[in-house]
Specification:
Blueprint: H1 4-35, H2 37-71
Helix pairs in contact: 1-2
Length: 72
Amino acid sequence: MRDLRKYAQQTMTRLIVGGLLLIVILAEFLIALFYGYEAAIGGAICIAVGLLPLAITWLFLIALDRWVKSRR
């Protein structure tokens, strides 16, 4: 038997990560195309700083999930 909840969670995680990667790569390509590579480096830094709160929240939720599962 398959664990459908785990499968759904893995699928959702892969879709979110893939979508974010696609957006970041496309944005960086367009910045480099129109403004040059120096601006693309600046854009990459801005995107990384902008995604930092998302990453921190995601890590917090993962840690909270593991903590709750260990308490059961």
